[in-house]
Amino acid sequence: MSKRVVLGVSASVAAYKAADLASQLVKSGVEVFPVMTADAARFVQPATFRALTHHPCPIDVFEEPFPGEIAHIWLARHCDLFAIVPASMNVLARLANGLADDMLTAAALACTAPILLAPGMNTGMWDNPATQANLARLRDYGYYFIEPTTGRLACRTEGVGRMADVPTILAAIHEMLARQDSWRGVRVLVTAGPTREPLDPVRFLSNRSSGKMGYALAEAARARGAAVTLVSGPTALPRPGGLEFVPVETAAQMRDAVLSRAAEQDILIAAAAVADYAPVEVAEQKIKKEAPPAPNSGGAGQEEVGGLTLVLTETDDILAELGRRKRPGQTLIGFAAETEHLLDHARRKLESKNLDWVVANDVTQPGAGFDGDTNIVTLLGARGEEISLPLLTKREAAERILDAVTATPGEQSPGRATS
Ligand code: CTP
Prior knowledge:
15 helices, Rossmann fold, alpha/beta, 419 residues, 8-stranded mixed sheet
């Protein structure tokens, strides 16, 4: 069966390019269902899209182009990919805020298939903090983007905001469609985020992990059709849909959640920043400055000179345990966040934890590490592979990591794991 793409066209001068895109998609065998915003229809007529795609091109959410169906729900359910080309400032704002007030936004907000946005707008509108905040929110919600380029804009200025060209968008759509079924039937478990190790009822030890890398990996695997389990420490990220989400707090809880599900997984990705140490004892009551527990009691103690001494114990290394239990056909991917001797430390982890891949990143480099939206990683494989990736968004890095795992010949490949 041919792939189905809903093509949402919103109001930007670049709307005319969407007609070319629709035509090329149809020629390449994709079934295209167009929808437009009312303002987009002032740039290009819906009749153009109807003629090019042989499907209705609704605008208003109450239109009934598919007899007996609620159109926006039907469109949302019957597509493999939803592409919004161009995506105007207004559409970005409405999607980021859940405003389903026309056919395009109602269908997109009801859609669980991947949504690809190709923004196109004036530089001032692109740079506007409201747009930038909406983009950040949409990225967190799992939307995919084709970034606008710098160039001459319709408003006779030069700057960022020019929608990517049609061949680039076409290639991205085909790549996403091709990936979609590539991990169908593969079971993937991802750990993400930090853990919290409680000291007392109000305090804990934790780290700076945002969870973004792990969430990006889980979402990328889900978009390839895998059955995904995401075991996540506490993060500020929205909970992704379409996967099993297992929230945990401590390293011990993460260990139990992972090990109880490990045997049935084909691919395990340990992206969590698991605490290496936890307090030996958790105080039942809040630790007070005035009445400290006795030093060396095994928990927290306050010394005569002032200050607090914590007694910590090493947590179980979940990844190392997965390495010991690894069965044939299972692929194990770990992370190595380092501040020095990156590749040496990473290679040692690859070997000592019996991994198939280790994703090494030097967290001291600008643009790499725990907190931000980007990362710079090198992939080391058990067969001697070494793949250095440039500065990428965590989402792009996730795709490249999954590509590397897919490309590995032999029993590590997802195709083999399901056969
Ligand atoms: N990891 C884990 N369980 C732990 C600690 C780490 O599963 N208790 C996993 C992380 O998810 C990551 C990898 O191990 O994939 C590397 O963790 P890291 O803490 O950087 O390495 P360690 O082996 O703990 O070594 P060190 O702290 O000395 O760098």
